[in-house]
Structures are given as structure tokens and as C-alpha cells.
Amino acid sequence: MMLSQFCVVLFMIQSLDRFILGIGCFWIKLKKIKPTVDGEGYDVEDGSSFPMVLVQIPMCNEREVYQQSIASACQLDWPKDRILIQVLDDSSDELLQMLIRNEVNSWREKGVNIIYRHRFIRTGYKAGNLHSAMSCDYVKDYEFVAILDADFQPNPDFLQLTVPHFKGKPDVGLVQARWSFVNKDENLLTRLQNINLCFHFEVEQQVNGHFLNFFGFNGTAGVWRIKALEESGGWLERTTVEDMDIAVRAHLNGWKFVYLNDVKVLCELPESYEAYKKQQHRWHSGPMQLFRLCLPAILKS
């Protein structure tokens, strides 16, 4: 009986949360509220007016998508001398490593500022990969870092639509774009996932971004101010949700987040139940690990 009553209380709390979020989303749509950019954009004729941006593509054994992800990043509309693309390959397949390295070399020959990076000691999964990449000496020359997972394909204007939101706002640490799914109508599983994630992006993140200046980083399709990452402790390997971890620590340090519901980055949903189950296990077990680790800091803040 105690357990059932506890579950009822949790259900009521979640229902109230959903109701408040729904009202907030309705208000945003009624008032047509959108994040705005302070001042004018960057001068196209003066490349030096654009900030230095680092683009990171973490991947591990991504044989099916590595070409399209690298191609999408290399076609981003940004001055060539103000951008560096890091392909962070944690693949264990030596043949695949060679293929990815060759793909990087072919784009470099076309004039793209891109480098290939492979770790010999592959610890810490994605968090370890990103932490290792941020330790490079040349990172100090860059102000922002855009993170794009291997199965994400941004439009060429992705940086043009996201980076200007940092302008004149020194307290903004993250600008997050929305995910858009190319295979949402593939089967019943993808359709159900699309409904669930559309609520997450359209309602949860948009409302929290507007009213609280905070939401969980989605791990990709976002741009960080490197100073915010460094002051918040950088990427840690202590949980399986390194994205949520850094978001909580950054928010506790006073950094604000901006969510852009109109800027969409293409990606794919898991189409099989096994792939979906693995994803959901990580998404649900990681936050519980993080809750235990961060609760004392949250209570003290």
C-alpha cells in the first residue's frame, strides 16, 4: 500500500509538471515568443568579425554514417579560417579507421580545415573522447565548440543561426538546436518515439529554455561557449549521460542556456527494439547516477 501510494504521488507530481509545461507552451505560441539576437549579425565581408568555432564529431564504429556526417560539417557556412573540424574517431576497426582518415584527407585537400584524431587508450566512452579532444593546445584559440554526433546532419546555416545568440550575452553558455527525424514514419516504433521526443523538444525544452534559461543538453546539435565548459569542470566520465552532467554543473555555475525550436538538425531514430532498448537504458540509468552525484550540490546552491 505504501508503494502504491508513493507511485500515485509521483504520478500526480508528473501530471502537474506536464500541465504547467503545457500552459507555458501555449503562452509561448500565443505571444509568438522566440529567442532574439542582440545587435546586427557578423559582417560577411570581414571574416575576422566571426568568432573562432571548433566543430567536434565524436564517433565510434559508425561505418554507415561517417561520410555524410563529415560532409555535412565540412559544408557549414562559416569563414574557412575561423573554423576547425575535429573528427574524433574511437573506432576499434582498423579498416574503418583508415576509411575515415581517407575521408578526412579528401576534404582537407579541398581546402577544409579538418583534422582526424584517434585515441589509443579509449576510456570514458564519449565523455573521455570529448575530454581528450578539449585538451589539445590549439583549443585555446577558439571561443565556441559545436558538437555533432556522427548520425547528425546540420544544414549549412547551422552556425549562422546558433552562434549569433551568444553575441552581447556573456552569461549564455549553450545554444541548443532541435532534432528532426528523417525516419519518423519508418514503423510504429519510430512514430511513437517521434511523438514522445516532439513533446520533449516542443514543450519541455522550449518552456524551460524561455522561463528558466535551463534545460538538459541533448549531447549533440548544440554550441557551447568553451569558457562555460572549462569553468564547469569540463567533460566527466562519472555517468553515462555526460551531456546532462555538464548542463547541470554549468547551470549551477550561473550559465544560461538558449533553446532554438526553429533550428532543426536531421538525425535518425532507432528502428529496432534492441537499439531502442539500449538507448533507453542509458537515458534512464544515467540520470539516476547523476541525481545521486549532484543532489548535494543542488541543495547547497
UniProtKB/TrEMBL annotation:
GO terms for molecular function: glycosyltransferase activity. It is found in: Golgi apparatus membrane. Keywords: Cell wall biogenesis/degradation, Glycosyltransferase, Golgi apparatus, Membrane, Transferase, Transmembrane, Transmembrane helix. InterPro entries: Glyco_trans_2-like, Nucleotide-diphossugar_trans. Its main location: Golgi. The keyword Thylakoid does not apply. It is a multi-pass membrane protein. The keyword Kinase does not apply. Residues 145-286 form the Glycosyltransferase 2-like domain. GO terms for cellular component: Golgi membrane. One of its GO terms (biological process) is plant organ development. Belongs to the glycosyltransferase 2 family. Plant cellulose synthase-like C subfamily. This is Glycosyltransferase 2-like domain-containing protein. It comes from Ambrosia artemisiifolia (Common ragweed).
